[in-house]
């Protein structure tokens, strides 16, 4: 089959993962639409996808798993024997069980994982895999998109067994311990609070609820004034060792 439509459904806090998804979809030459589930204001879907469509699910890897906030939202999408692609973007450490988890979740909800990928994206913390996905990564993603289309022409087959991962999955997906600060240049526009992935930012746009924040750094990424930032010597110190530990280059992996 050639899909009548491709829909990207993604959680992408610092906008790295969504680049790969777009590159995969664009190579297919089908109409593409996007559903961004990153903000806490995300509204659950009301309709299931059909068997003639393709859905590309995207999420980052947090501690070897899908972030819990992303998993909850992804779990609200339903398919009807709908082919899907499970794409995890990770920050050059490892994706552990997250790709398997995304395939399993999709299957439980009526989708058939016909392909999957573990893509490298710049790490949220420190300076790791800086600038990735780069042009070469996106070319590889486009090649993967073309392969998916060719595979779909031959029929729909579930590739979950080709994806590495433990079951039960390792513990993870909870987020990190770092909390952004708000600098004096904040103009109280409210964008960070609106876009926060968990609704952790208070009505003053400065207070962060420690129990809700997952250190996704989306508020830092979206602030037009660069007024949300990490100002924390303990974070700086952590980054020095972390940058060194994860400096060896890793490659994208595709499962089809
Ligand atoms: C709390 C947290 C945990 C993370 N855990 C991992 C991990 O286990 N392995 C890894 O390689 N990268 C990890 N990362 C890095 C992200 O997977 C990476 O930055 C990814 O590109 C983010 O994608 P996004 O901007 O599309 O959300 C983590 C990032 C955060 C914020
Ligand atoms: S987005 Fe930036 S400028 Fe706007 S309220 Fe948040 S910190 Fe302040
Ligand atoms: S406050 Fe925490 S959870 Fe919200 S966007 Fe910022 S880092 Fe992410």
Mind explaining what this structure looks like?
With 256 residues, the protein is of the alpha/beta class. The chain has helices at 17-26, 68-74, 98-108, 135-154, 191-195, 218-222, 233-245; strands spanning 6-10, 32-36, 54-60, 82-90, 111-120, 181-182, 228-229, 253-255. β3 (54-60), α2 and β4 form a beta-alpha-beta unit. α1 packs across α4 (135-154). It is globular, with a radius of gyration of 18 Å. The chain starts with 5 loop residues before the first strand and ends with a strand. The mean pLDDT is 97. The structure holds flavin mononucleotide and iron/sulfur cluster (SF4) (2 copies). Residues 180, 196-198, 200-201, 208, 213-219 line the site of one iron/sulfur cluster.
As a percent range, the share of strand residues is 15-25%
**Attached small molecules:** flavin mononucleotide, iron/sulfur cluster
The strand order across the widest sheet is: 2-1-3-4-5-8
Average pLDDT score: 97
H and E order: EHEEHEHEHEHHEHE
Shape: globular
**Count of discrete structural domains:** 2
What is the CA–CA distance across the termini?
Answer: 16 Å
Assign the CATH class of the largest domain: Alpha Beta
CATH architectural name of the largest domain: 3-Layer(aba) Sandwich
Count of discrete alpha- or pi-helical segments spanning 4 or more residues:
7
Radius of gyration of CA atoms, rounded to a whole number: 18 Å
Specify the CATH homologous superfamily of the largest domain.
Flavodoxin domain
- Briefly note the CATH topology name of the largest domain: Rossmann fold
Specify the helix fraction band: 25-40%
């Amino acid at each position: 089959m050639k899909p009548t439509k491709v829909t990207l459904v993604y959680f992408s806090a610092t906008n790295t993962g969504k680049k790969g998804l777009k590159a995969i979809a664009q190579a297919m030459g089908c109409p593409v639409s996007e559903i961004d589930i990153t903000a806490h204001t995300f509204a659950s879907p009301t309709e299931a996808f059909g068997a003639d469509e393709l859905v590309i699910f995207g999420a980052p890897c947090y501690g070897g798993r899908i972030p819990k906030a992303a998993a909850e939202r992804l779990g609200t999408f339903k398919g009807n024997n709908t082919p899907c692609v499970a794409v995890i973007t990770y920050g050059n450490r490892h994706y552990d069980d997250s790709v398997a988890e995304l395939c399993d979740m999709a299957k439980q909800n009526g989708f058939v994982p016909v392909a999957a990928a573990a893509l490298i994206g710049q790490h949220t913390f420190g300076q790791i895999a800086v600038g990735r996905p780069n042009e070469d990564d996106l070319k590889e993603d486009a090649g993967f998109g073309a392969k998916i289309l060719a595979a779909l022409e031959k029929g729909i087959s579930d590739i979950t067994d080709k994806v590495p991962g433990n079951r039960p999955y390792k513990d993870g997906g909870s987020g990190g311990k770092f909390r952004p600060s708000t600098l004096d240049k904040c103009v109280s526009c409210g964008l960070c609070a609106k876009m926060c992935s968990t609704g952790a930012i208070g009505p003053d746009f400065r207070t962060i609820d420690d129990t809700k924040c997952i250190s996704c750094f989306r508020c830092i990424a979206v602030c037009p004034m660069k007024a949300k930032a990490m100002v924390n010597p303990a974070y700086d110190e952590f980054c020095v060792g972390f940058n060194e530990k994860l400096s060896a280059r890793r490659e994208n992996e595709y499962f089809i």
